[in-house]
Amino acid sequence: MEDSIHIAEHARRTINHAIHSEKLSEIGQFLTPVSIAKFMASLFLENVENARILDAGAGGGILLASLVKSLCFRSFKPKTIEIVAVENDKHVLQYLNNTIDSCRFECEQNEIGFRATVLNEDFISASLLQLDDGLFAPQKKRFTHAILNPPYKKINSNSKTRKLLSTAGMETTNLYAAFVWLAIKLLEPHGEIVAITPRSFCNGPYFLNFRKDILDLTSLTCSSFSF
Fold first, then answer.
1. How many CB atoms lie within 10 A of CB 132?
2. Half-sphere exposure of 118 (CA within 13 A, CB side)
3. CATH number for the domain including 53?
4. Distance from C-alpha of 71 to C-alpha of 90, rounded to nearest angstrom
5. Does 193 fall in a domain?
6. 109-119 pLDDT tens trace
7. End-to-end CA distance of the chain, in Å?
8. Please, what is the average pLDDT of the chain?
9. Lower CB density within 10 Å: C or N end of the chain?
10. Which residue ranges in the chain fall short of pLDDT 50?
11. Based on the number of CB atoms within 10 Å of its own CB, is 84 exposed (0-12), middle (13-18) or buried (19 or more)?
């Protein structure tokens, strides 16, 4: 089977070609190039026996593929890798599933148990509505890794998304902050998140609660990437 990263990169190029760049910009979606995906995967430091990975807004799966390959080639390999990929665009699910199949094959070749779940849902709605008794409930397993390139788009003040976030005490004006915020809340203790954010990702009064939670729940390491 073809290398998982090559399959995911082919999916990215195909999706970019099929969907006009203006449409991608309109929905705040900027698919991750393979070089950046590999760099992001390299930033995870902890070794775990059982890796459980979240990718919110998974697209064609390039981030998942890069992280799975990175884990497979570590000297301390996990015994199992489980993926939860959330993607609300049904048109890219075929490419995402192809990438996940190649990740499964890669894990089998390295004698690592593999399991994957693809959720064709809106990440914010799914996680907020099910925090108490659904997929992300406290009694459910949390994530050891979260890797994401969240959408960069303002949240309309009158939208359902904004109201759901406000009800949960999560006041923010941009989707990227909401994605990162929720992903952090879904991590295990000592879990790791690597995310693409703008440099001013938590500046200003609108991000006050976001900043407080980040400082309470995480320690930060900032990295830059040069083309």
1. 9
2. 20
3. 3.40.50.150
4. 28
5. yes
6. 999 999 999 99
7. 30
8. 83
9. C
10. 20, 22, 25, 27-28, 227
11. buried
